[in-house]
Every structure is written in structure tokens, then in C-alpha cells.
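C-alpha cells as discussed.
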């Protein structure tokens, strides 16, 4: 399996890229398949992959998913995306799979006008439940996850108010939404969309691994930063939820592996037809 990772972190230190790499290596080992994994720095170097890959995973990243509209790296990024979408439309082509994470998800939703992309009233940071929609209950990649299931969230922006006409025209469907907060009169964010048969995205981080995140949060500098920004209660609550096997560990072991399994099955079926 040839996998391209589109790195949108703009050189900012992060856990996301480590998690994606480790998850891909683990999947290849579990399925005993050769893996070619290449990374493309999109925002600083304007590097995007060609059409030789089977799977594309586009990462999260810092900053505004709105202010970058029309700049050079976005032009390169959307040229890549369109080339994959056009490839997948051609009958007889072996399809290429795309997974969009957080920042990638937000800029694609903005680009296709699938909802309103705006700044949150306050940053979302921690471990939270998300709820499946009717389409989400039927989504094969969510198989094995309860309703609600738990996710790692880390964002200042959100996608809200789904544009049903645009979603319908694309053949897309909303798969998950933010937890309900009856006491808070705010829109519930869209947390996952299936854009088409071969492309899916989440506004959260399905790559987040519980042990690695816990180790990261226990570092003194990170601990001080989280407590200063989000409070001690949030910090200790997150550590506790990361320790529970039916929360982040389950999401990490289910969602992206199911996506990769789907891509692998398609690849193998194509080879033998």
C-alpha cells in the first residue's frame, strides 16, 4: 500500500504526525503488507503528492481555516484534491482513498461550501462524546464504535449549519455531530462527513492514541500549558478519560483502521478482477 501524508502543520510541533505514522506502520504489520509512506509539507513548501498513491491522509494543523483562502498553498492543495476526485470518476480506475483530519476537513468544507466555517466562542480541547447521525449509524467505518463514541478534540474553529443542497449535490452526508448541550444555546458542530464513496473526513483527531497522548500531557511543560489555558479540572479529566479502554483507545483502534481496511480490500479486489 502506497500512502501519502499531507502535512498541514506548517512546521508547528505536534502529536498528529507521529500518531498517523505509527498507526500506518501498525496496520501494515497487522495485515503483513508492504507499506510505502511519504510525507508532503503543504503549507510551507507547497508540496502535494501525485496520483501514484493508493491512500491519502491529510492532517490537522494550526491557525485559521478561513484566512488561507486563495493563497498559493491552497491552490496547490485543491489542484491535488480535484485531480484525485477526477481520477476516481473514471470507470475502470482503481480508486484512491482520502481521509481529511480537522484543519483539512475545515478547509475542504469551506471550499465546497458545505457549511459555515467560523471561530468557536471558546476553544474545544479535551476528550468528548460525539453522536452519530442517521447516516452515521449506517456508516461502515463507524462499525465497532458505540453511540456516542469518544474523540480527542483540539480546535478553535468549527463547521456548523450544514448546507443540505450542496451536500446532496456532492452525494455527501453528515455522519456525526457535537455532543448536545441543552444549557448552551450554540450550534452543534459537524464532526464527520462522508464526502463520497472514497473520501471521508472528521473535525476531530481519530489518529490520537491514548497512551501517547497521556505521556505527552504528563510532560511538565505541556501540563503547565494545558492547566494555564484550560484549567486543572479539564487537565485531570482528560487524563482520566485517556485511561479508559472504551474511549479514545477504541476510536483510535477502529476508525482509521476501518478506513485503511476498506482501501486495502478495494486494492486486493481490483488486483484479482
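Sequence:
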Amino acid at each position: 500500500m502506497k500512502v501519502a501524508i499531507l502535512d498541514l502543520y506548517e512546521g508547528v510541533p505536534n502529536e498528529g504526525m507521529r500518531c498517523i505514522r505509527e498507526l500506518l506502520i501498525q496496520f501494515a504489520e497487522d495485515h503483513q503488507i508492504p507499506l510505502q509512506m511519504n510525507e508532503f509539507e503543504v503549507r510551507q513548501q507547497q508540496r502535494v503528492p501525485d496520483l501514484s498513491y493508493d491512500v491519502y491522509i491529510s492532517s490537522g494543523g494550526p491557525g485559521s481555516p478561513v484566512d488561507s483562502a486563495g493563497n498559493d498553498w491552497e491552490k496547490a492543495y485543491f489542484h491535488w484534491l480535484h485531480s484525485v476526485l477526477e481520477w476516481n470518476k473514471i470507470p475502470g480506475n482503481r480508486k484512491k482513498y482520502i481521509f481529511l483530519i480537522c484543519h483539512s476537513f475545515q478547509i475542504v468544507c469551506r471550499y465546497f461550501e458545505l457549511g459555515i466555517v467560523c471561530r468557536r466562542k471558546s476553544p474545544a480541547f479535551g476528550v468528548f462524546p460525539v453522536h452519530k447521525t442517521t447516516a452515521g449509524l449506517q456508516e461502515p467505518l463507524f462499525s465497532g464504535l458505540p453511540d456516542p463514541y469518544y474523540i480527542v478534540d483540539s480546535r478553535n474553529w468549527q463547521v456548523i449549519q450544514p448546507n443540505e443542497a450542496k451536500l446532496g449535490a456532492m452525494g455527501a452526508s453528515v455522519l456525526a455531530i457535537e455532543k448536545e448541550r441543552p444549557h448552551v444555546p450554540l450550534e452543534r458542530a459537524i464532526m464527520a462527513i462522508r464526502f463520497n464513496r472514497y473520501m471521508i473526513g472528521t473535525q476531530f483527531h481519530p489518529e490520537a492514541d491514548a497512551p501517547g497522548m497521556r505521556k505527552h500531557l504528563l510532560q511538565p511543560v505541556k501540563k503547565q500549558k494545558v492547566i494555564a489555558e484550560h484549567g486543572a479540572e479539564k487537565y485531570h479529566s482528560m487524563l482520566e478519560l485517556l485511561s479508559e479502554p472504551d474511549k479514545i483507545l477504541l476510536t483510535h483502534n477502529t476508525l482509521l483502521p476501518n478506513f485503511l481496511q476498506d482501501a486495502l480490500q478495494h486494492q486486493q479486489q481490483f488486483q484479482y478482477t
